[in-house]
Amino acid sequence: MADVVLEHLVPKTDQQIPEFLEYLGIPGLADIHVHFLPEPMLQKVWAYFDQAEQSYGRPWPITYRMDEQSRISRLRKIGVAAIPALSYAHKAGMATWLNEWARDFSNRVSGALHCATFYPEPGVGTYVQDAIDAGARLFKLHIQVGGFAPDDAQLDEAWRTLEQAQIPVVIHAGSAPLDGSFTGPQHVRQLMERFPKLVLVIAHMGMPEYHEFADLAEEFAGVYLDTTMVGTDFTNEFAPMPDSYLHRLPTLQDKIILGSDYPNIPYAYAHQIEALARLGLGRAWLTAVLWGNGAKLLGLSGAAAS
């Protein structure tokens, strides 16, 4: 039987999200895929999206084009329980200063999650260990933007360190919205075969290679999928979930974690939650995806930051 109350409360606006979370009985949102960057880098990212029609063939307006404090405040009002500052390096020498910035962000922003990144370069194992020693709890890689293979031998020491520490890495390895020389599941599979206890969160559920990355989540205990942009009206125009994939989602309930890509999304945050709710997988599934799985992986407890 359909949950009429749940369907009625599905948020259409950010202001309606807290009431929806209250109905689900969860203290907040465990969003694992949020970006905060040094201001000059953020402006370059936004400028890139302003020219999205050249790259993606469609406009990509930034909904949350606000100053940093306003973006933080909006997440707190929505109910995001810990605020990640995901960044990623696309060339040698970037990761160390991005990690320094992210460390400062976590120190000066109440409720922030200390994040870090890395890149295949000399010394990567050392600075990954340094970031962990400094308190980093979440890492991010972007294979298409970085232009490297996740199983690059230069990364072995870093992966070994992360596997031992059991610290999750959000990895954008799918071939949407743009493919690259090393995108797709093959290199991730090879990585997991070499480091089978790694904790990887596959961004965007690996779209458009949904099934292949779901196979990895089923085969390896430490592989998860994040929901970033999945099922939204925007994404359904170029990388929709196949019907056969939808049927797999109930059995993957414990492996799926909320992701949003905030603030670089062309719609309201609430639409991501709406997109997940309209899959029709029920209250228990939504509760696990919006809170339980991410909270467990990130070690969150209690209520959302206020």
What do you see in this structure?
The longest helix has 16 residues, at 283-298. This protein has helices spanning 4-9, 17-24, 39-50, 52-56, 68-78, 94-108, 124-133, 143-146, 156-165, 185-194, 210-219, 233-236, 243-246, 269-277, 283-298, and strands spanning 83-84, 112-113, 115-117, 138-142, 169-172, 200-202, 223-226, 256-257. The chain starts with a helix and ends in an 8-residue tail after the last helix. Helix 7 runs parallel beside helix 9. With 306 residues, it is of the alpha/beta class. The mean pLDDT is 96. Helix content is 44%, strand content 8%. The relative contact order is 0.17. It has one domain: Alpha-Beta Barrel (TIM Barrel).
